[in-house]
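# step 3/5: fold
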Amino acid sequence: MPLKREEFHAVAASFLGWTLDAFDYFVVVFLVDTLAGAFGVSKTAIVWSLTATLAMRPLGALFFGLLSDRYGRRIPLMANVVFFSVVELLCGFAPNYTFFLIMRGLYGIGMGGEWGVGASLAMEAAPKRWRGILSGILQGGYSVGYLLAAVVTRFALHPLGWRWMFWLGGIPALLAFYIASKVPESEAWQQHRAPSTGAVLRILAGEWKRFAYLVFLMVFMMFLSHGTQDLYPDFLTSVHHATVNTAAYIAMLYNVGAIVGAIIFGSLSERLGRRWGMIGALGVCLLSIPIWAFGGSLTVLAMGAFLMQAGGQGAWGIIPVHLNEMSHDATRGVVPGLAYQLGILFAAPTNNIEFALRDHFGYQWALASFEIVTIVVLAITLALGTERRGRSFVTAKEEDHVMVPE
């Protein structure tokens, strides 16, 4: 059964918002050397700008999430898109590193707000039997954004210059018009709207054990995602002497793997369950480590990167639906996004940790050892956890509020 028009627009708006948000973030990943030279700072300083973006995301998740639980999904999502687009545009005008660092922190607030509100809007609009695959498609927007950043870097950086990489980030503001004209308000929010922001916070406090579990899960999911993606282009250029263009091509390839993996494992989660679908995806990651980190040629490394991201983003493809199903009806705007972004906060030093490990053990073992530990902890956490696959978001039935151990 095809999606209804309003369901399609809700999912499309969330997908596009996350795609464009990820594009704006990952542009910096490809410009580490360029920005260090432009501002006269070390590469480590530019890596800290990535950390600043990640660390500020929980503020955006809390602020925009509370707004969406109190006033609906549409208006906070539109405000968020305009905010992060304007900040990204200003990054292109940065006269020095200090200004750039401040803008990247502010950008983190916008990036933190977009995912939670967009995911709740999409998942509340999706039919129950479509949630898994649509969750994979939605999270695949992150990889599409990374892919677009790689393409733009490859073909636009040298003719246009680095500032244009950020000026292009102003384009997402146009998405607000699409949301305003095409996307309906969430029926689930209308039925379960809390009477006040205080009521939302009280419900959140009452669900603290479940929330703490979700935050712990997201910390290690962030270790998996950012630990395998953010520094990989620099790893290719530093250790294997790949050109920036070659690293960009490999990034394009492994993001195709990420998109495919997110959709496949998101769909499989409808049969296997959310947790076991993610554990299966983690198995792909673990098996790919030898060629992802220790491959002897760029071709082998590219194959390893494809498989790593197919598994890593395969697990991530289940996260939007899993977090939304685990959330209380009245806090679905804030809980998924805040758990997600607090995971980012605690995992924000990922790049710096891997840089430090690189100095002691070499780049290859730094990446490999960090991810082996991450994958093992994630698998144990998921195996011991619970899920609420297939619960209703619209009608509050007794069985919808029961944990489903499998």
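# step 4/5: annotate
Confidence is low (pLDDT under 50) at residues 397-406.
# step 5/5: archive (pending)
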